[in-house]
Structure formats: structure tokens, C-alpha cells
Amino acid sequence: MDALDEAHCNGELEIGLKLGFSELGLEDESETAAIEEAVKVLLQSLGEDSTREGLRKTPLRVAKALREGTRGYRQRVKDIVQGALFPEAGLDSGVGHAGGAGGLVVVRDLDLFSYCECCLLPFQVQCHVGYVPSGKQVVGLSKLSRVADVFAKRLQDPQRLANEVCVALQNVIKPAGVAVFLQSWHIPFPEVEESCLGLISHPSKMDMQGWVKVSVCSGSGVFDNKNGDVWGDFLALLKFRGVNVEKNFIHSSSTHFWCPSRSLDAPTCNGHVSTKNVSNGRISSKTGPAYPAMITAVASILHSLGEDLLRKELVGTPNRFVQWLMKFNRSNLEMKLNGFDSGRRDVLKPNLHRGTGNVDEIQSELNMPFWSQCEHHLLPFHGVVHIGYFHAEGAELIGRSILQSIVHFHGCKLQIQERLTKQIAETVSSVFSKDVMVVVEANHICMISRGIEKLRSSTATIAALGQFSTNPDAKATFLQTISNTTASGG
Amino acid sequence: MDALDEAHCNGELEIGLKLGFSELGLEDESETAAIEEAVKVLLQSLGEDSTREGLRKTPLRVAKALREGTRGYRQRVKDIVQGALFPEAGLDSGVGHAGGAGGLVVVRDLDLFSYCECCLLPFQVQCHVGYVPSGKQVVGLSKLSRVADVFAKRLQDPQRLANEVCVALQNVIKPAGVAVFLQSWHIPFPEVEESCLGLISHPSKMDMQGWVKVSVCSGSGVFDNKNGDVWGDFLALLKFRGVNVEKNFIHSSSTHFWCPSRSLDAPTCNGHVSTKNVSNGRISSKTGPAYPAMITAVASILHSLGEDLLRKELVGTPNRFVQWLMKFNRSNLEMKLNGFDSGRRDVLKPNLHRGTGNVDEIQSELNMPFWSQCEHHLLPFHGVVHIGYFHAEGAELIGRSILQSIVHFHGCKLQIQERLTKQIAETVSSVFSKDVMVVVEANHICMISRGIEKLRSSTATIAALGQFSTNPDAKATFLQTISNTTASGG
Q: What residues of chain A, 135 to 154, have a C-beta less than 8 Å from chain B?
């Protein structure tokens, strides 16, 4: 709820204008090519062969997704709202407020995606927009969503996004006032190194538990006065949809350093947000000098998106994005995890359910969380892994922590879910039990933040080895076990 | 689960091919213009002035939306999947099933929208797609969604949609098998005439209660055998997400006449679906000869979309769509409702809460359902209306049925939500109580099925007259009353 900077917003609109005119096909092509080159550098620095089949088109995919995800720089609010302002009668003054004069209109629960300017990862937004019509005109409802999307499709911070949407709508509709309330969720930075040792508590479900959440608001016109009754009306209408906002919240919202990557900048500076999900800066200390080529590549991506590298919010972004990518570089992990086949006794549990070789002998470890990075889009996918296995009579059970380590080992690289599933199964099979079944359930950020935007979609994959591939009852029993534990919890 | 007609699907792919090549800008422009002309005829036949500001661009909007909503005719599955088939190792035969050979992959909860071929209204689809990779290759996950969308963006029936998605994926990926499970929801045809008399039970919430729902599935390859274990695996993975399907369902699914408009064809022929939400055919009997210009206009729209008017599923579609539109023609209603200001005593309730002019005197009627038709897009919007009013001391209360009649009276025409809210408030104010407040909460099909596809979005509008516009406490009290009753129920 900082004061709205109208000059700044006009600047934004002009940037949109300029880019709108200069945005010819040729320029677009050269920007895309520049991003592709930068992504190749990143892949190579990660030790990947950027010519292998799965990665060959990744630079182009990433470039297109980033251009698409920042298309708001090349859109004009006026173009969108033009022709969608409709004359609509209001009531005479003194009679009341309704329709095109004073009748509050609120569009709730608009799902948006934006790119975090601190770390270049997408974040998810639930957007609620209200305005009070004046001048006996109303705007087409879908335009509230489309205008919000213009500003979401940029490198953003939640508070600035709210402010920009608010000012743009105020300028273009000229209503009595505009209110914007955003709930935003940011992917946590997984503690790859620590979680391999089983030390941290990860999001244990596929929902956004563990994500960093902030709520922000912005108001103009009659919503300028944070004590005004119209804020109460707006918040009441949100409450009908289960969105509970304390009215005193609108006096105090702040999102400084909401992005978990910000704590990497200086370990002692945690700003205003919880540090539960942020790293301890260990990687930070060694990243600065180590990956100059990668940092230069990310900087060139920002430049190709039309961003000003000197803008203060972006100064550390290339370094932070590189740190994120390096979390999925498995080289460090391989050393830590090379004890897999030595049968560490400390990770074996006593067998409480000794069986006789029947289906009853299946042991399960369910809902082990994982994070990985989609090699087709350089975007995270995350979820849970369920592992079922047969164990020999009298043998000890495999500890959850060692299974979790195997999951992380195979997750911490550029991956696809099908391969991850297979590799986890193969590792368990070769080290512990040839009869193993792995089910991976994941949300792919590329499926929800890019083109198709299938917000609720989730992907499940199965690998079945040994008896699980030959005995349908074994497979069905394990699937039923998962179902009993997780169904309706997702 | 009818046998899949591969020849038919190849035909579909060829249609896509042909249109893909012939789809030049000019042709597109002439098709759009033809639809615009037809929509103008419909507007005029509804007694509307198609040149008034709110409707001036409606023909263009409708034409664009219909072209966009049937873009699948002009898309080729091969173009979409090309370049997204990735080599991926499987396991040796005998060891098990995983990755690119035998490891089941399921993408769940894809939200799609399609147009019902029976009545030309959009219907909502929750789509689940699975396949078993073979030949050591997998397909990019988003392509499963994109291919499903190619067939959703046509005039469809749920079973045919499932079959076409299944066959197309089988042909283009050449996996061991493909399974498709769809849950579809169709808007009910509101019983406008009856509901004005308060006789029917309407969907009382904003969710899809009251909608016609069907589930269908389709399988190929290893999913051809409905008794195969792989169907069990697929359904188990859906169950993790709360989608419960009985395995014997896949032997018997059928969607004959799922569209509620089908019962309009012949009142005694209700097919296999529930008739709870379908009309009794009264309008039907007089529609046939009465609206030939409208029926011709809708037929020309189908033709402009590239459809074959002689295709048997489409023969009655123009007539059914006209009947739907005529439900929002208020002319019949005006006669029925002209008794508003005569103070019908049968609709007044005894006053159980006599008050003293304070806020306590507010009377509320909440969650009154309504249906209306968005004049910008000729698509329905629906939801609930909450009415609060002050009543004079000793006066009798306004009956819920008369308020519901007022709501329907103003809903049954081409509308916008802001105006509907104002008109309901004005009517109550002029007839019963000058101190009235109206809150309308609605889902707009145009917001969820068209371009922006904001599935969860909902719009709330307020009109406040008399004391409600001058006394913030009165307004806040009424909003709190709604909140207490509806919050978290949506």
C-alpha cells in the first residue's frame, strides 16, 4: 500500500507503447536467438550435452516460454480495454449506488502467473480486482483479467504487480476507484544438500505447502482511504469466496525479500519474510566467483527480455538464478551418496512384519517429497514418490531416509518424470530388492505457468520391476495401499 | 467405449490438414463476417436493437469466440506432437516396465471446454489421459493436453471427444496403448417459465449443482481389453486425485442424449440421461414454425464453422439453439409478472421480526438462483442473488417467491451483471422498500470457456439504495449476514 506512483505507471504504459511499435518479427527472432545461446551456455555449464535429443530444443523452448512469459512488456492496456467500455446507467445521486455509478464490481479468483524479478522463477497469483464505476460506464469483465495479465507477464514483485494493475485500471477506466488484492505463492528453494541427509521438513504433499506466501493490496480513488467503508465492502465480497483478509492488513502489507533467493545475497539479511524455506547461504559463498559464464548468460537473457540490468531489483537476479540451477547439479551429491550399495546399517529398520513371500510382504514408503528440474523447459517439477518393495524373509527393511536419498539423488538434475521414476526403481532394485514398484506424482510448473496453463493438472508415472511387473495382484495391492493413504488428499 | 473408428479419425486428421492449408486470412475474415451477419439476425429476432452500444460489437465477439472455440478443425495433431517425441530408455523385457517401455504415464485433471454439437452451448470437461510408452520413446507431457484440446475445440459429444483424443494419440505416439477418461458437465436448460412461479428447484449454489454430468472413457492398444489390469492401474492413479471410477463403468458408459436440449426434440424421448433439468417441450411446440429466420441464421453459423449441416448429430442443432435463446426473451414473462405493484398478499410473509428502524430491521433473502445471458457474448451467466431490505414497522415481509420472480424477470433477457443488479434493486425499491441492497454473485461462461479461461473466477456486484447507500453500518450488517450464511460454501 505504498503511495501509487502515477508517473512510473505512465512510464510503463509508454514502454508498452514503444515496444508495441518496435516489436517486429525480426527483432523478436533475434531476441529469441540470443536467449537460446544463453541457455546453451547454462546447459553446458551444468555439465550437460546440449545436443542430446532431450535437450536439443530446450534452448528454443526456454526462449519461447520466457518471451511469452514477459509478453506484457509488449502489450498496451489501452489496446485491451479499447472498445470494452460500455455506457451503463447509474442511479441519481441521493437515491443510491448501482450500475454505472457507484455500484461496486469485483472479479474474484483470477489465476495468474508471473516471473519473480529476484530469481527468474515463476510465481503463482490469485488475483482479486474491484472497481467502483463512475461516469455511467462499466468495463467488460474479462478486461479486468486481461489488464492484470499484462502486468503479470513481466518480471515482477507482488506489491509492484498490484500497484501497476491498480494504476493502469484507474487510468484507463477512470472509475471512482480501483482495489486490487493479490495472494502470491513462490516456490521454495529446496534444501537439496540438507534434505539428502534427511534433515529438513519438506512440503509433504503436492499442494503448495511449504511455498512462501504473501498477500498484498493496492487501492486508488475511493480506495485511497484505507479506512473507507468501500474497502470493507470489497473485503466482504472476497470473504464470500473464503478469502479472509483482516481490514488492518491493508495498512501494513509488505513484501520486501519475499523471494527465498534473497537470503542467498547475505545470510544475515532475511528481511520481513519467514526464513523457513530459504537457504543458509552456503552455496552463495562459493557461487560468486565460480560461475561467471552462467551469470553473464542469465544477464544477457534479462537484456533480451527488454529489461534494464541496472534496475536495482535485478542486480542480483542472474547470480540468484544460477544458484537455483546449481541446486540441480548433482556433482556434489554423487560423493555424498556413493554409499548406496554398502548397505549402511543405520538406514535399515527392523522388520516388524515378517512375511512368507506373499503379497502381504510388500513394504511401502509413501509420500516422500521430491524436487526436480524439467529438462525440456528448465522449470521445476515437484511432488511425491511412493515406493513399494518385497523383502526377503528375515531381512531388515530399507529405511525411509535411504529411500528419500535415492529419490533426491535422481531428482537433483535435469530430468523428466518418466526417467526419474525408472531410475529410482532401478537403483532400489539393484541395491536392495529386485521386486520394486515406484509411483511418482508431480506438478509440473511448465504445465501450469506456460502456454497451456493447466493449473490443476498433475502427472503420475509408474515403474514396476520383478514381481510387480509379472503379478497384477502385487501391483494392485500397492496401488490400493497408496490410495488408502493419499486419496482425496491429493 | 464403442469400437474406435480409425477410418473416421483419419478423416478428422485430413480435415485438419485441408483446413490447415486453406486457412488463409481472407477466408477467415469472410467466415467471421458471415457469422456476424447471422448473429445480427438473432439479436434482431430477440427484439433487440443490434446497434445499441452494448450490442454493437456482440456479433463480432460471438463470431471470434465461435471461430476460436472451433479452432480444432484447423489444427493438425502431427504439428503439435512433432518434435516432442523423445527417445527414452525402457527396461529389458523380463526385468519390468518403466520409462520408455511399459511405464504407465497419466496426466490428470486437465480442464477443457468444448461446444455441444446438440445445442451449440459450451460444456466443461475434466480430462484424464494415460498412455503406456513403447518403442523406447515418450511424448512431452503438455502435448497430451494440447492434443486433447484440438478435439475439444470442435462441436462435440463427450464420447466422441474421448474416442477422437484416444485414436489421435494412438496414431501419433504409437504407444502400447492409450486411455482417456472424461468427466463432462453441461449447463442445464433453466426452466424460465416455471421458475417464475417458484415451482422448480434450481441449482442453489454457484457450483455446478444441477448441471448434467456424464463420464465416458475410451481405450486403445493394451487398453482395448476392458478387463486388462492396465485399466486398473489407470483408474487407481485417478483415484489418488479423488476421481472414483467403478471398473465396471468402462464396460457400459453411454451419453446418448446427454444434452438437456435433446428432450426438446420430442417430449417423450428422454434417452439415457436424467430428465430433472430438461424442459417439458412446451416452447418446442411453438418454436418450429415461429423462428425460421433465426434457425436459418444458426444453420449458416454452423456452415461458417466448417461443419456439415447434414451430419445427423447437427440436424436439430439450429432449432435447439434458437429455443435456448428464446428462453431469454422476456416477452412472455412480462405478462406473467405485471402484478408486481398490486401488492399480492399471497407473496407477503407475516413479519416475525418487528423492528424499530434500526439496522436490526434488515430482512434478507439469500442465495436466490438466477440465469441470464451475457449480452456481450451471447453466453449464459448464472449464480445467486442476495437481497436485503428495510421494512416499515408493522408491514408484512416480502415473500421469497416474489423476490425470486423479480430476479428471473430481469435475468431473462440479454443482460450484463451490473445492470441486472441495479434493475433488481430498482424494482424492489419502487414496489416494496426504498431501502434495499442487492448483491449478485455469478459465474460467467464467457470468462471460463473463452480466451482467458479463468475457471475459478466469479464476479460480485452490489447495488445499494436508500439507507443502504447512506448508512455504512446497514451495508456492513447485510454483507455480514451473507457471509455468515455463504462463506466457504462459495
A: 138, 140-142, 145-146, 149
Number of inter-chain CB pairs under 8 A, A vs B: 288
SS3 label, residue B161: helix
Shortest distance, CA B387 to any CA of chain A (angstroms): 14
Evaluate if residue B205 carries a pLDDT over 60: no
**Position B435 confidence tier, pLDDT thresholds 50, 70, 90:** very high
For residue A1, is it within any domain?
no
Mean pLDDT, rounded, for A103-119 = 94
Domain count for chain B, please give it: 2
Give yes or no: residues B307 and B361 share one domain.
no
For residue range B297-322, what is the model confidence (pLDDT) as tens digits?
999 999 999 999 999 999 999 999 99
Does B322 fall in a domain?
Answer: no
Check whether residue B454 and residue B414 sit in a common domain: yes
pTM, rounded to two decimals: 0.85
Same domain, A308 and A187: yes
DSSP H or E run through A336:
helix A331-336
- Quote the minimal CA–CA distance from A398 to chain B in Å: 21
Does residue B1 fall inside a structural domain?
no
pLDDT at position B290, please?
60
The chain B residue lying nearest A100, using CA atoms, is B418
* Domain contains B296: yes
Of A418, A460, A475, the CB nearest to B99: A418
The residue out of B316, B342, B369 marking a domain boundary is B316
**A48 and A91, same domain (yes or no):** yes
Q: Is A471 touching B (CB cutoff 8 A)?
A: no
C-alpha span between A57 and A62 (Å, rounded)? 9
Tell me the pLDDT band of B394, cut-offs 50, 70 and 90: confident
Give the CATH number, domain containing residue A107.
3.30.1130.10
- Please report the pLDDT score of residue A487 as a whole number: 53
Chain B: closest CA distance from residue A176 (Å): 15
CB crowding A46-57: b at 16 or more within 10 Å, else e: bebeeeeebbeb
Closest Cβ–Cβ partner in A107, A240, A465 for B96: A465
Instruction: Count Cβ atoms within 10 A of the Cβ of residue B383 and give its class: 0-12 exposed, 13-18 middle, 19 or more buried.
Output: buried
Partners of B180 in the beta sheet?
Answer: B129, B218
d(CA A415, CA A25): 33
A247 and A386 part of one domain: no
- Interface probe with A: pick from B111, B364, B452, most Cβ of A within 10 Å: B452
Distance from CA of B269 to the nearest CA of A (A): 37
A249 lies in which domain range?
A: 6-324
A93 and A62 co-located in one domain: yes
Both A110 and A28 in a single domain? yes
B343 touches chain A (CB under 8 A): no
Which of B103, B429, B444 is facing A463, going by the closest CB pair?
A: B103
A110–B240 C-beta distance less than 8 A: no
pLDDT tens profile B4-49 = 444 344 444 434 333 443 444 667 888 999 999 999 999 999 989 9
Among A294, A324, A354, the domain boundary falls at A324
pLDDT surpasses 90 at A293: yes
Across chain B, mean pLDDT equals: 81
Neighbour count for residue B393 (Cβ, 10 Å): 10
Indicate if B82 and B207 belong to the same structural domain.
yes
Note which residues in 178-217 of chain A have CB less than 8 A from chain B: none
Give the C-alpha separation, A421 to A423, whole Å: 6
Which residues of chain A make contact with B441, given a CB cutoff of 8 A?
240
Q: Compute the distance between CA of residue A52 and CA of residue A35 in angstroms, rounded to an integer.
A: 19
Mean local confidence (pLDDT), A210-217? 89
